């Protein structure tokens, strides 16, 4: 047996010459070859190719001072270089997916598992930035661009962690399946955070809407505190629009659930005059409430959309009839007209006709007391009935007109007795012209003459003309026109009447009253227009109304007493004045009063 010897360089020593020759690159002769008596061997196979010799070793470093080592040791305090990392292992998809899923949480946990601190810090910073922007939760939420940026960072970090972990082990995580499971569990962190944030944001929206509701309530309260509906109308409108907007835009919110009660309170506030029985004052606010559905919609108001109908109909009727009873049939009639236009089938519309008939009966029955006021009201009731539907106010006009006829004459008497002669003259004249078949027509015509004279001569209005002419002896009064233009003479006393004298051809105005007295109606060559009157004895009042086509002549009045046994003459003439033709005292040039009497100038 060959003895095993150890070579000095650490390798086994070759055991024989053959082995050494084999190592040297050639084979010794086979003992079975020809020299050993065997058949000649076959041709040996060609020798294997010989590898090129290795490159020469680097020369040793130059010798240094005794005791120096090569390479030289690091300087004192220097950090030694890190040991080389483990060589890349085979790819592991499960591990890569687990690392990527860990990073999807946004916390950089995949990087932490890989011991990649800087990328992990970037992920944490991105998530922290998102939280700073998102908290506290606001109704507007986080800007979508910011969320998209964070999601992009998370996805990129997940892809990068997966790439890194594909061939690199995760220190401390020997089981990739555990990493993947933990990553999937941690996905609940951003998902739960999103749910929690959305809940907080939803609560922020609720708080914002409740604050908006409170501001709207303040508007309604401020409007209610104004002096009258008109002063707070704009604020009421803004409040209603605010309530309706809440209900329409956020129907499921807590604030919207409170809107119906808030609207009811607002309606009650607006309708305060109606609840306090101030029906005329209530018409405007109730009309406002009734028109709200046109501006904010019926859906927002619900049952309140039709609530104002009944109180408004009642207010229109009550206020209208109250005003009619107060003598304001014009304004009251406007409300009643609106009642028939808006609520023709209402109970209140059906009450108008009977109420007007009652009012007419009361006014007619009160005559002749307060004749002018009652007659004016009856006339207004007649006009009002003409504006309303005929079937609803049947009989009102006929009854009112009957009262007007009765009351007009009584009104003229009232005005005459109150010294309102101009109004009385007009009233009596209208009565005589309108009611020609009335038994008081002649009395009205005489009273109109007396009232017209009394305007110029108040003594003529001490009493109304007598209904019948007195008996007894009558005296003749011859009245002539001695001036230019026609002259109308009105007289009243024991008898009342009027006459008209034609213009005197060739007569002119006198320069003075004295000249008129001396020459009026005395030119025998002139034919003076004249008329004869037969008058009972008594005191008379005259009014002379000179007509002129070119000049203005003032009226003139005078008085005289007619005594039995005499014949009287009177001549009307004119005197020039600063403003044109002025009436003279109209003393007749041929006036022949009895002894001791004369004309009251």
Automatic annotation (TrEMBL):
Ranges annotated as biased composition (Pro residues): 37-91
Keyword set, alphabetical order: Membrane, Transmembrane, Transmembrane helix
Oxidoreductase found in the keyword field: no
Record's compositionally biased regions (Basic and acidic residues): 1-30
TM regions (residue ranges): 121-139, 145-166, 178-197
Location of region: Disordered: 1-93
Official protein name in the record: Secreted protein
Organism: Streptomyces albidoflavus
Lineage, broadest ranks: Bacteria, Bacillati, Actinomycetota, Actinomycetes, Kitasatosporales
């Amino acid at each position: 047996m060959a003895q095993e010897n150890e070579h000095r360089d650490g390798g086994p020593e070759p055991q024989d010459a053959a082995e050494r020759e084999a190592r040297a690159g050639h084979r010794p002769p086979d003992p079975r070859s020809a020299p050993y008596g065997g058949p000649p061997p076959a041709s040996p196979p060609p020798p294997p190719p010989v590898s090129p010799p290795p490159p020469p070793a680097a020369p040793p470093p130059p010798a240094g001072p005794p005791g120096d080592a090569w390479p030289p040791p690091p300087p004192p305090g220097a950090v030694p270089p890190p040991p080389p990392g483990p060589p890349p292992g085979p790819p592991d998809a499960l591990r890569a997916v687990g690392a990527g899923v860990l990073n999807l949480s946004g916390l950089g946990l995949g990087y932490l598992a890989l011991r990649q601190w800087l990328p992990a810090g970037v992920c944490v910073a991105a998530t922290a930035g998102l939280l700073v922007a998102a908290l506290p939760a606001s109704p507007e939420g986080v800007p979508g661009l910011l969320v998209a940026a964070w999601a992009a960072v998370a996805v990129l970090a997940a892809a990068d962690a997966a790439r890194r972990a594909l061939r690199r082990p995760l220190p401390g995580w020997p089981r990739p399946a555990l990493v993947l499971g933990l990553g999937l569990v941690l996905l609940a962190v951003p998902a739960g955070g999103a749910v929690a944030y959305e809940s907080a944001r939803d609560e922020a929206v609720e708080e914002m809407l409740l604050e908006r509701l409170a501001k709207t309530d303040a508007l309604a309260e401020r409007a209610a505190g104004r002096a009258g509906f008109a002063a707070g109308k704009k604020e009421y409108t803004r409040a209603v629009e605010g309530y309706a907007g809440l209900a329409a835009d956020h129907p499921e919110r807590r604030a919207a659930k409170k809107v119906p009660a808030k609207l009811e309170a607002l309606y009650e506030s607006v309708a305060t005059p109606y609840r306090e029985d101030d029906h005329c004052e209530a018409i405007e606010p109730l009309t406002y409430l009734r028109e709200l559905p046109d501006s904010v919609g019926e859906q927002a108001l619900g049952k309140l959309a039709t609530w104002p109908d009944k109180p408004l109909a009642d207010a229109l009727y009550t206020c209208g009839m109250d005003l009619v009873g107060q003598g304001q049939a014009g304004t009251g009639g406007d409300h009643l007209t609106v009642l028939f236009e808006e609520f023709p089938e209402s109970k209140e519309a059906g009450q108008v006709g009977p109420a007007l008939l009652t009012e007419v009966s009361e006014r007619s029955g009160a005559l002749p007391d307060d004749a002018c006021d009652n007659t004016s009201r009856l006339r207004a009731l007649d006009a009002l009935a003409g504006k309303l539907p005929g079937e609803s106010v049947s009989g009102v006009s006929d009854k009112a007109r009957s009262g007007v006829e009765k009351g007009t004459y009584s009104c003229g008497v009232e005005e005459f007795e109150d010294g309102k002669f101009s109004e009385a003259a007009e009233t009596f004249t209208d009565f005589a012209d309108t009611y020609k078949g009335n038994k008081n027509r002649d009395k009205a015509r005489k009273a109109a003459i007396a009232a017209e004279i009394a305007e110029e001569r108040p003594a003529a209005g001490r009493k109304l003309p007598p209904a019948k002419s007195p008996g007894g002896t009558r005296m003749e009064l011859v009245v002539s026109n001695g001036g230019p233009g026609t002259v109308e003479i009105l007289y009243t006393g024991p008898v009342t009447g009027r006459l008209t004298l034609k213009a005197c051809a060739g007569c002119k105005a006198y320069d003075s009253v004295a000249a008129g007295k001396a020459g009026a109606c005395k030119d025998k060559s002139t034919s003076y227009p004249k008329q004869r009157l037969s008058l009972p004895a008594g005191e008379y009042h005259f009014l002379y109304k000179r007509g002129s086509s070119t000049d203005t002549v003032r009226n003139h009045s005078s008085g005289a007493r007619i005594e039995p046994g005499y014949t009287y003459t009177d001549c009307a003439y004119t005197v020039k004045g600063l403003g044109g033709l002025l009436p003279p005292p109209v003393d007749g040039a041929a006036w022949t009063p009895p002894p001791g009497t004369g004309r009251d100038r």
